[in-house]
Structures are given as C-alpha cells and as structure tokens.
C-alpha cells in the first residue's frame, strides 16, 4: 500500500522569507502523481502544485516550487516570499492512477510571522 | 455550478442517530470521491463513484456507512447508528480530465459531523 509521510507537524516562517515543507512517500508503482494541497482554516482544500512522476523537471507555480527526488521518494514544497495568506495546513498527497483516490499525509501547519 | 457544494456544513447528532450528508459536484464531473478527515489529520478515502457506479468502497469503515449517487450527479453519504468515533469532517471531491491525462480533484468545503 502507498503511504505518505509528513514528519514535521508545524513550521513557522517570517513574512517574505522562504520555507520548505518536507514529504516522503512509499510506492512500488512507476507511474504516479504527487500534489501539495493547502487547507486554510475555512477547510476548503485547494490544489497548490502538481508533479507527474515521469517528468524529471520540478514543477513551479509562481512562488511555489517542488524538489522531486524520485529515487529517494521525496517531494518537498518550497514557498518563496512567504505571505500572511500562506498560513494554513499543507498536505502532501499521492495519486496512483490518473483517476483514483488520493492518499494524504498527516499535514503540516504553517504559520507566517509578520 | 461554481464549485463543489456540501450540505449541511455542520451537523450535530446524538449517538445512535442516522445522518445523511449531501454533495453537489461540479456540473459535468463524472467522478466523485468521499473522504473522512479526523481533527488534525489528513483526509482518508472512503468511496469513489464514476457516474452512478460505485467503483471502490474499500475505505468505508463499517457497514453503517453507505453512499449512493443514483443519477450520476448528487451524492449522499449516509451513516447509520452514529458513534462518537464517526465525528470528523466529511469531504467530497469531484474530478475531471485535464491536460496530461490526469483527473484533477476539486474539493467541497466539507461537513463537520459531531456525535454527542
């Protein structure tokens, strides 16, 4: 079975600084997808960034980028120029097939200090 | 519609009561997922529909949990004889095919169920 591990329960970052959130996963599949989701206190889960395992290039979306290390099964999220609105829970998630269930990590609570 | 909607947003049930949670997916999304999110945890898969067919119900924790999507649109998650351990946020997501051959899941705001 696939597992997703987020070992840091909380992190804090100063506004305008950079922070990296860690995630590791375990799978025997060769074709899969990885995601980072943001969940503000309002609870609506929002997709932040997506990475296809077959792509070697790391995904980037504005201030958000990933460091995908397939051999190490590591998938970290870097947030640059942190903003107060980035404060939320962040979940790393794994998708085995193109249209199947997501497997989530336990999440990390990110706080942003003004 | 503009997004996935769920109702009610909050539900308090006494132990032993039956509850029904509703999900309205984005129009045209053929796939629909239910997840259960305990406090401070990540969501866990419950069940999955493609149109009206329930293709995977491996995550349902007991036979007290039942989900349906009779016309391939609105879905209802029913919990019979609720127990305290059923207290959680229940998230619904619908998905559609995007570029690259992947289905992107869009989540609703969830229903927070509290069993007293």
What is the secondary structure topology, with strand pairs?
The complex is a heterodimer of chains A (about 110) and B (about 120).
Chain A: E1 3-5, E2 10-14, E3 19-21, E4 24-26, E5 33-39, E6 46-52, E7 60-61, E8 64-69, E9 74-79, E10 88-95, E11 102-104, E12 108-113
Parallel strand pairs in A: 2-12
Antiparallel strand pairs in A: 1-4, 3-9, 5-6, 5-10, 7-8, 8-9, 10-11, 10-12
Chain B: E1 5-7, E2 10-13, E3 19-24, E4 31-37, E5 44-50, E6 53-56, E7 65-68, E8 75-79, E9 88-97, E10 103-107, E11 111-115
Parallel strand pairs in B: 2-11
Antiparallel strand pairs in B: 1-3, 3-8, 4-5, 4-9, 5-6, 7-8, 9-10, 9-11
Q: What multimeric state do the chains show? A: heterodimer
- Per the principal axes of the C-alpha atoms, what is the gross shape of chain B? globular
- C-alpha Rg of chain B (nearest Å): 14 Å
Helix content of chain B: under 10%
Averaged pLDDT of chain B: 94
Secondary structure class of chain A reads mainly beta
Order of helices and strands of chain A: EEEEEEEEEEEE
The overall pLDDT of chain A, averaged over residues, is: 93
- Main sheet makeup of chain B: 7 strands, mixed
Q: Beta fraction of the residues of chain A?
A: over 45%
Low-confidence stretches of chain B: none
Percent of residues in helices of chain A comes to under 10%
User: What sequence of helices (H) and strands (E) makes up the elements of chain B?
Assistant: EEEEEEEEEEE
Number of DSSP strand runs of chain A: 12
* Euclidean distance between termini CA atoms of chain A: 41 Å
The proportion of strand residues of chain B reads over 45%
């Amino acid at each position: 079975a696939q597992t997703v591990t987020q070992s840091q329960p909380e992190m804090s970052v100063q506004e305008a600084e950079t922070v990296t959130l860690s995630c590791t996963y375990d799978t025997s599949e060769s074709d899969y997808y990885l995601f980072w989701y943001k969940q503000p206190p309002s609870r609506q889960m929002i997709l932040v960034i997506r990475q296809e395992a077959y792509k070697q290039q790391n995904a980037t979306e504005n201030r958000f980028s990933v460091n995908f290390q397939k051999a190490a099964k590591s998938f970290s999220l870097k947030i640059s120029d942190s903003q107060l609105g980035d404060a939320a829970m962040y979940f790393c998630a794994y998708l085995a097939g193109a249209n199947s269930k997501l497997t989530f990590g336990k999440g990390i609570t990110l706080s942003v200090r003004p | 519609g503009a997004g996935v909607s769920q109702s009610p947003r909050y539900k308090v049930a006494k132990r032993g009561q039956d509850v029904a949670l509703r999900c309205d997916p984005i129009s045209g999304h053929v796939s629909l997922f239910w997840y259960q999110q305990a406090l401070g945890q990540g969501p866990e898969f419950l069940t999955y529909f493609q149109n009206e067919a329930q293709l995977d119900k491996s995550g349902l924790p007991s036979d007290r949990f039942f989900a349906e999507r009779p016309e391939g649109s609105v879905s209802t998650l029913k919990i019979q004889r609720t127990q305290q351990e059923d207290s959680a946020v229940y998230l619904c997501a619908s998905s559609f095919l995007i570029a690259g051959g992947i289905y992107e899941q869009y989540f609703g705001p969830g229903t927070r169920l509290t069993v007293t």
